Every structure is written in structure tokens, then in C-alpha cells.
Amino acid sequence: MSDPDAELRNRYGPVAAVLGAGQGIGRAFAQGLAARGFELLLVDVDERALEAAQRELEADGARVEAHRLDLASRDAGDALASWARRHEVGLAVYSAARAPVGSFLAAAPAGLREAIAVNCGGALAACHALAGPMVGRGRGGLVLLTSLAGLQGTGTVAAYSATKAFDLALAEALWWELGEQGVDVLALVAGSTDTPGFRGSRPKLASSAVLDPPERVVDEGLAHLAHGPVHVVGEGNRKVARALESMDRADRIRLISEQTRALYPGEDP
Length: 269
What we know:
This protein is α/β, with parallel strands linked by helices. The chain has helices at residues 4-12, 24-35, 47-59, 76-86, 109-137, 158-179, 196-200, 214-224, 235-245, 249-263, and strands at residues 15-19, 39-44, 64-68, 89-94, 140-147, 183-190, 230-232. It contains 10 helices and 7 strands.
């Protein structure tokens, strides 16, 4: 009888890099990969959260190396490439993100630029730095976290929506380019997920609202990595995505933007 965890390690091991590992989906990926027997290279800009994640994982017996790194910085790619030369990183998960909420014109330009730098620039740097050695070995995997908000322009989270569309397109392009060289690439589309980041944005949730647990994102992401280029997490989110695809583009933007604005009613002027 086959061991799916062993098959996963053989295809993508021995080291998995999780970028944005301090909390939320990134931390859940670190936990899920450790449970599947991977050694871990963890990266986050929040040193305290990163140290807490490392302590927790090492207490459970995982082998972990952790580095504080601002993935928006110009030297992020050089740092990642340096670590990749010392470790056989066969899998990289990019979950780092900034998500400005509210009216586009009311947002501070610096915050909007930071979202682009982290969500787009960091993802580019990570893929460029880490995919080369994978291609050299003829195997590997990249997971880029994206969002239902990135399937179309979404008001109230305009910059975040645009950056997640970028990540989706990047993953699709690399799925084609790198797949020919043995590297699997997946755009992993998450909906509303029960993370500290989402809760911290103070959404107005209905009492009946059900958020996806981050563990579901991990399990579905790893199960579908070899079957890219895109996977939407959760059957409810897949129904939403299929319904959106069938709509006129303008109606689609109106619907998802109105729903997003309803989550954050106090954010618009």
C-alpha cells in the first residue's frame, strides 16, 4: 500500500520553504509539512511570530531553520538564493501578503506600494531564486497563494485584488514554463479563511458565516499541487468561482465588490 506522505517527500523533499510562515495559512503549511516529514526553511518579517512557530515545530520534533526577512526588500531574492544553495529546497510555498482594506483613494500610497512589493515583488523574487535549483534537479514544486478576490477586480480591496490576480497569472505562466522541466506550480485560490490576519481586518461576519480552516487550504493545496495550474479551496468557494465565471464581467465585479464592501461597511467614506 502506497504512503502518500512518502510520495510527497520523494517528489518535493527533503526541505520545504514556507515564506510568510509566522501565522495564518503560512504557519498551517509549516505545521502540515512538518507532520508529513519535511525539513523546514521558514521565512517571515515578524521575528517574534517566526520564533514562536519555530519553537512549536521543533518541540514536535521537526528540523527547522528560520530567518527573518522582509520579502519586499530588494535583496530578498539574493537571500533566498543563498539559503537554497545550502539546502535542497524541493517545495516552496509563498503565503506572505499585505491586504489593505477600504476605499482606494483613502488609502495611504505607501501602504498600497507595500502590498505590491510583498504580494508581487516577493513572489517574483522567491520563484526566481528557488525554482532554478529545482529545475536543475528535474523535480520540485511551487505554491502561490491567491484569492477569490483576484479572480476579478474587487472593490474595497482594490490593491490586494490586483496583486492576487498577478500571483494567479504568474503561477499559470510558470506552470507551463517549469512544468516542462519537472517543476509543478499551483495557484492556490483561498476564500475567507479563519486566520489572525483575516480576523484582524475586523470583517462584519454574519452569525451563520463559516470560515475555511487553514488546514483545509494546506491539505487541498498539497493534494492538488501535481494537478495545477489552479485550484480553488473548498466546495463552497468552487461553486462561487463557477458562478462568477458564468456572469457578465461587469455584473461579476459588482457582485463580488458589493459583498466585500458589506464585510467592511465602515471602511468607505
